[in-house]
């Protein structure tokens, strides 16, 4: 055959003649059938038979094969396949439609493949061609087999030459060149100056656990600093932005090759985006590693009880301004949209179904959160220093002395070697027990007659018996013309298996007395010895500098290993093998994910709370409990998908914002509980060591006297048994008893029917007194409800009724702190329903209705803590009750009694006298105190505050003073850190209110929940949610900006339980003090008998915390002079050993960027609430028709605007309602509240029981109004009324 000679050529020659071979083979060579059919035996001896003979001959059975018949050979050929050694045509390898490319002719680099015999390669190709499905995966575009490069790569060696001396000539010299080592006689001796500053160990056998963690912290911190200095993520992000911009520009163009360029751009964008996100995730993970090591170091120091090394990490957060936050949010949304767009574009068409838009957004957000800083997240700034003061107590001194004794026995010394010969040896140095370093300050001038070949330093361990070599390191030789003063201090690293560290030193050429530089001559610098003397690149920065200076070609295959090493160095993998990835069949993460047992072992090693106490792990994964790892993954996914509330944004809907805020607070509470459980496992010295007093003569005498006392078994000594706290009470465990005594100033009914002769007159009366009222008797009764059960009194008569009725409600469900006792006052209306007077004696002719007059809520926890509540309390009645009006006090009590003077306007309030108790008494479960959180304060301040609180509690057990409060980050802080004057939001129209009153009303509009977490003002405004303590602190900070001295008041309210208020003193009138209620926003004087703060326990501001140590705790009976130590016990004494945290450590921001609540959100809220309330109102009226008066609803909306904008607005509201009142009898009232959620509004409307009106001809009207304030705070009004036509 014409191609026989080419078939037998070597592999390299066959590759060069591949084009000609492919053409000739396609024309002259017949296609080889790898699996011949049985008909081939009839046409003579086929080719497959010959190949079979070769195979059997190689096995030693040729004789048997020759004796076999052709039919038997044909049958064997169907079973055994022996490929031919003839080459396969390139078109056959690529399949139909495949086009052969010649990569070398196209200028593409083709690597050198391992040497394989041509016949073996042909047989392998014959085998692979038979796989018609996957044969394209085995061959490249040029028809060659896909294979790895030659593993024995030659390492390129290129001397690091200076650019100015790059063109040097090769000089051949004799073998004996000893003379060249000496300086010529015509030149003076060189002067080499060495300065050794200090020696530092980063690894030492005597390292304690604290030193090891401190060193780990230092290394991780510097790794993070290097990543920030490299700015790789920033450069990649800019490059990705430019690539996206180029892609968008190319999409607007048309022409040949545009589609291919777009596809190439899309692939590059995908790869670069992945690399950029990985780089960002690496930076954030290193930062997290730094903080984790620092937390571990602090925990270790707390456990051991002292500080042994001065390493300290300072962590600070840069508060993000509102403008910057909005910009970050906008950029974040744009980035998510861009990633979603690219991911959708990269989606493969063969995927089953396309994901929803929300799924894409969630996936893109998850990818970006791992690599980018979410919007609103504070910028974390960390700084490492070595100025932490070490402990000086007895325990730390004992440990340091023991370590110092070991270091005295293992001193270190240095030995200087010049050209392999010792020239100097230092004295032994003792390492510092805290830093494991030695300050030397050695200055060594070295005059030499030999040119420097090598310059090294040996570090020896000097003991009393012998000297042991720790490490030997080469010192850097100075550059040409550099003196010691001009060279910066360099770190020379050394290390072995047991020791590692670095030496701070610098070298330079010295000068003689005339000021001439004594350095080697030009002949020394012209040699290539300087290249050997230079330091080999060890760090990524040095390697990159070497590559830039050498200007090597990254596209040259000979430099592929260097470029690969440089990339690996940049990623932190200094010892990676570029060929190792070719042999990996799976990653380490995939390997661990596939085995549940290995995953559990890894989590246990990392100290995860769910697995750290798991002692016995089964050896087989099938023996693990089912669902153990699945529950952990589900819980971990939920925690990772929920971001910190400061980082996440809620949408514009007020209802969704409230839901998001509640979820955020719930996450904070769960986080604090988890950290509390973890912190409770870490015992302090005071918990582990029990200190007993040393017995003295007095105690010994009492002990001896106890032996001689007579035994009295009939009169044993009894010890009081502590009460057992009950978290929840079971059915029939207790009964709530409410004794309703009387009421004062109950509103009376007014019949406003107009006379026919005086239609223009609003009131009915006699001609002599037009303002006289026709008073209708009021029949009030009280209804008490708790946990779905209710009871009521009988109906009394008059505006000042007396019942003396005892109501009992059995508690049949579990009770908790948030449960309340609802006490409501109603008017029983008797309606005559008889139409025929003749049937009055034989038929029922009355119907009883009830109208809501007011209510008061008592926390169940207040009843549990005090065992009883007794007194007269004002009801939360509204100032406008349609159909009712409060009589003047002169008409009720006569002219001898004047009006009740009260700053809270008690003359217009209704008062209810009642008594509440539990039978038998129940003990409220105290909050768990065993879970200790990590404290932000120093150990001395924390211990001092705990001791001070214990002293106050010992004197007054009922007065709870929280000196340390939990913060949102899961740590405790001193209460004084939360006070700073903060400017409140601006209000243009105060409507005859003072700025302080407007501010107090704004704080009362912020919803509250029980969280036991003290939030900062910025966090409260972000969430528009808080608890009572946080809102009281916020109000105190706002009031401090006015002409007032403000404190946080901690005390007790009968209707509130343990409560927090704001206490103010007018700077102009120091005797005028007031208490501000964060629930209602009202101000009360100290002598107000109905002040919401019944007892005062403590006050606090930014300077101190004062506990009330007076016998009296009622505000009107106390002295508020905080300088009197007999009345107030301060937590921090001015001249005491422990000082209060400074103003620089205040957690509150200096100012808050308030945002305007969108009016569209309020309109949406009003529309939704009106429809929800109407729907529920109709549902409550079972079997009754509900008719809505639209005109009444529109009038009520106008009235609500009047009620919001003015204080005394009853006359204006009645003027608006006059047309309706003229034609209808009306019963109704407005309800005012802060908007928390829809359920709270529905519950408030249901408690009025207006839906129970059974008049078939009655019409109803409901109006809702929402008035926006700053940061999504809303003043919500609901006006509900019932109308009936006048006859």
Automatic annotation (TrEMBL):
Q: Which InterPro entries match?
A: C2_dom, C2_domain_sf, CC2D2AN-C2, CEP76_C, CEPT76/DRC7_peptidase-like_dom, DUF5523, Tectonic-like_complex_comp
Please name the source species.
Cloeon dipterum
Highest taxon, organism lineage: Eukaryota
Q: Which GO terms describe its biological process?
A: non-motile cilium assembly; protein localization to ciliary transition zone
Q: Which GO terms describe its cellular component?
A: ciliary transition zone
Q: From which lineage does this chain's organism come?
A: Eukaryota, Metazoa, Ecdysozoa, Arthropoda, Hexapoda
Q: Which residues form the C2 domain?
A: 718-873
Gene3D superfamilies linked:
C2 domain
Q: Where is this region: Disordered?
A: 1-46
Q: What is this protein called?
A: C2 domain-containing protein
CDD domains assigned to the protein according to its UniProt record, in alphabetical order = C2 (cd00030)
Compositionally skewed regions (Polar residues) per UniProt:
22-40
Could you tell me which SUPFAM superfamilies the record lists for this protein? C2 domain (Calcium/lipid-binding domain, CaLB) (SSF49562)
């Amino acid at each position: 055959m014409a191609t026989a000679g080419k078939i037998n050529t070597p592999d390299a020659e066959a590759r060069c003649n591949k084009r000609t071979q492919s053409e000739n083979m396609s024309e002259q060579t017949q296609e080889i059938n790898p699996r011949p059919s049985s008909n081939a035996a009839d046409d003579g001896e086929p080719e497959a038979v010959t190949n079979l003979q070769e195979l059997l001959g190689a096995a030693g059975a040729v004789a048997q094969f020759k004796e076999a018949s052709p039919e038997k050979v044909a049958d064997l050929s169907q079973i055994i396949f022996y490929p031919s050694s003839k080459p396969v045509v390139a078109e056959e390898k690529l399949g139909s439609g495949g086009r052969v490319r010649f990569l070398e002719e196209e200028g593409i680099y083709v690597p050198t493949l391992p040497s394989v015999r041509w016949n073996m390669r042909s047989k392998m190709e014959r085998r692979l061609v038979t796989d018609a499905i996957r044969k394209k995966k085995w061959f490249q575009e040029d028809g060659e087999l896909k294979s790895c490069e030659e593993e024995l790569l030659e390492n390129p060696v290129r001397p690091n030459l200076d650019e100015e001396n790059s063109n040097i000539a090769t000089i051949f010299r004799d073998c004996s060149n000893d003379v060249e080592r000496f300086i010529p006689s015509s030149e003076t001796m060189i002067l080499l100056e060495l300065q050794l500053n200090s020696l530092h160990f980063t690894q030492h056998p005597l390292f304690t656990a604290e030193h090891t963690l401190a060193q780990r912290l230092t290394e991780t911190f510097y790794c993070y600093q290097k990543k920030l200095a490299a700015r790789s993520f920033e450069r990649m992000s800019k490059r990705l932005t430019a690539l996206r911009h180029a892609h968008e520009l190319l999409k607007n163009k048309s022409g040949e090759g545009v589609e291919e360029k777009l596809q190439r751009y899309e692939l590059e964008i995908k790869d670069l985006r992945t690399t950029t996100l990985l780089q960002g995730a690496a930076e954030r993970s290193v930062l997290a590693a730094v903080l984790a090591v620092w937390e571990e170091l602090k925990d270790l120091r707390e456990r051991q009880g002292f500080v042994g090394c001065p390493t300290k990490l300072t962590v600070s957060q840069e508060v993000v301004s509102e403008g910057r936050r909005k910009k970050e949010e906008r950029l974040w949304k744009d980035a998510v949209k861009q990633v979603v767009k690219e991911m959708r574009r990269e989606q493969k068409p063969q995927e089953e179904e396309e994901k929803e838009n929300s799924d894409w957004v969630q996936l893109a957000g998850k990818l970006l959160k791992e690599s980018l800083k979410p919007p609103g997240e504070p910028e974390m700034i960390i700084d490492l220093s070595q100025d932490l003061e070490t402990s000086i107590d007895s325990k730390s001194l004992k440990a340091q002395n023991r370590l110092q004794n070991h270091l005295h026995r293992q001193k270190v010394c240095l030995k200087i070697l010049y050209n392999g010969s010792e020239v100097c040896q230092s004295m032994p140095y003792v390492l510092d027990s805290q830093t494991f370093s030695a300050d030397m300050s050695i200055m060594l001038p070295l005059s030499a007659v030999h040119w420097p070949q090598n310059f090294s330093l040996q570090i020896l361990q000097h003991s009393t018996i012998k000297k042991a070599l720790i490490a030997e390191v080469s010192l850097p030789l100075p550059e040409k013309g550099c003196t010691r003063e001009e060279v910066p201090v360099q770190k020379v690293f050394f290390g072995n298996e047991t020791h590692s560290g670095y030496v701070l030193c610098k070298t330079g050429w010295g000068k003689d007395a005339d000021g001439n530089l004594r350095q080697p001559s030009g002949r020394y610098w012209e040699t290539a010895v300087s290249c050997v003397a230079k330091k080999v690149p060890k760090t990524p920065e040095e390697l990159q500098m070497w590559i830039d200076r050498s200007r090597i070609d990254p596209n040259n295959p000979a430099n592929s290993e260097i470029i690969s090493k440089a990339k690996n160095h940049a990623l932190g993998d200094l010892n990676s093998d570029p060929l190792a990835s070719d042999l990996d069949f799976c990653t380490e993460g995939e390997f661990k994910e596939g085995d549940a047992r290995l995953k559990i072992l890894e989590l246990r090693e990392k100290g995860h709370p769910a697995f750290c106490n798991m002692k016995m792990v089964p050896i087989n994964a099938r023996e693990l409990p089912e669902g153990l790892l699945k529950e952990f993954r589900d819980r971990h996914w939920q925690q990772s998908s929920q971001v910190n509330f400061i980082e996440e944004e809620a949408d514009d809907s007020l209802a969704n914002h409230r839901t998001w805020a509640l979820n955020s607070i719930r996450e904070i509470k769960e986080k604090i509980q988890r950290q509390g459980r973890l912190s409770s496992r870490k015992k302090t010295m005071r918990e582990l060591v029990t200190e007993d007093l040393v017995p003295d003569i007095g105690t010994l005498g009492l002990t001896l006297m106890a032996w001689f006392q007579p035994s009295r078994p009939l009169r044993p000594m009894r010890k009081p048994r502590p009460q057992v706290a009950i978290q929840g009470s079971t059915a029939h465990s207790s009964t709530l008893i409410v004794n309703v005594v009387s009421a004062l100033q109950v509103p009376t009914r007014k019949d406003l029917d107009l006379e026919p002769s005086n239609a223009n007159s609003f009131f009915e009366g006699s001609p002599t007194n037009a303002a006289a009222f026709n008073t209708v008797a009021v029949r009030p009764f009280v209804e008490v409800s708790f946990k779905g059960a209710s009871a009521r009194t009988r109906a009394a008569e008059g505006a000042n009724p007396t019942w003396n009725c005892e109501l009992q409600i059995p508690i049949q469900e579990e009770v908790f702190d948030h449960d309340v006792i609802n006490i409501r006052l109603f008017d029983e209306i008797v309606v005559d329903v008889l139409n025929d007077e003749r049937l009055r004696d034989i038929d029922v002719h009355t119907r009883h209705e009830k109208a809501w007059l007011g209510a008061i809520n008592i926390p169940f926890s207040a009843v549990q803590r005090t065992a009883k509540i007794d007194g007269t309390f004002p009801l939360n009645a509204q100032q406008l009750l349609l159909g009712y009006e409060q009589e003047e006090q002169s008409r009720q009590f006569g002219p001898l009694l004047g009006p009740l003077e009260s700053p809270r306007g008690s003359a217009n309030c209704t008062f209810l006298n009642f008594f509440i108790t539990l039978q038998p008494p129940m003990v409220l479960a105290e909050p768990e105190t065993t879970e200790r959180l990590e404290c932000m304060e120093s150990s001395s301040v924390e211990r001092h505050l705990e001791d001070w609180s214990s002293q106050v509690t010992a004197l007054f057990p009922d007065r709870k003073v929280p000196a340390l409060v939990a913060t949102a980050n899961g740590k405790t802080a001193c209460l004084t850190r939360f006070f700073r004057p903060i400017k409140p939001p601006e209000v243009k129209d105060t409507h005859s209110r003072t700025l302080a009153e407007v501010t107090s009303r704004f704080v009362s509009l912020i919803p509250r929940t029980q969280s036991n977490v003290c939030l900062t003002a910025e966090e409260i405004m972000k969430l528009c949610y808080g608890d009572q303590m946080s809102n009281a602190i916020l109000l105190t900070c706002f009031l401090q900006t006015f002409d007032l001295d403000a404190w946080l008041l901690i005390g007790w309210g009968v209707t509130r339980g343990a409560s927090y208020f704001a206490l103010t003193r007018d700077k102009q009138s120091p005797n005028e003090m007031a208490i501000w209620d964060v629930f209602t926003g009202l101000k009360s004087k100290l002598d107000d008998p109905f002040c919401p703060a019944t007892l005062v326990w403590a006050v606090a501001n930014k300077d101190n915390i004062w506990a009330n140590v007076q016998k009296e705790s009622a505000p009107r009976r106390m002295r508020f002079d905080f300088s009197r130590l007999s009345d107030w016990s301060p937590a921090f004494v001015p001249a005491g050993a422990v000082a209060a945290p400074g103003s620089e450590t205040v957690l509150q921001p200096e100012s808050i960027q308030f945002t305007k609540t969108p009016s569209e959100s309020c309109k949406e809220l009003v529309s939704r609430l009106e429809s929800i309330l109407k729907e529920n109102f109709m549902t409550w009226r079972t079997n009754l028709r509900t008719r809505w008066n639209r005109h009444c609803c529109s009038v009520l909306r106008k009235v609500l605007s009047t009620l919001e904008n003015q204080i005394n607005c009853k006359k204006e509201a009645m003027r608006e309602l006059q047309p309706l009142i003229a034609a209808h009898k009306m019963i109704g009232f407005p309800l005012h509240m802060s908007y928390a959620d829809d359920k709270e509004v529905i519950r408030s409307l249901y408690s009025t029981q207006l839906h129970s009106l059974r008049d078939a001809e009655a019409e109803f009207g409901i109006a809702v109004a929402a008035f926006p304030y700053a940061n999504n705070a809303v003043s919500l009004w609901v006006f509900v009324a019932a109308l009936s036509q006048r006859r």
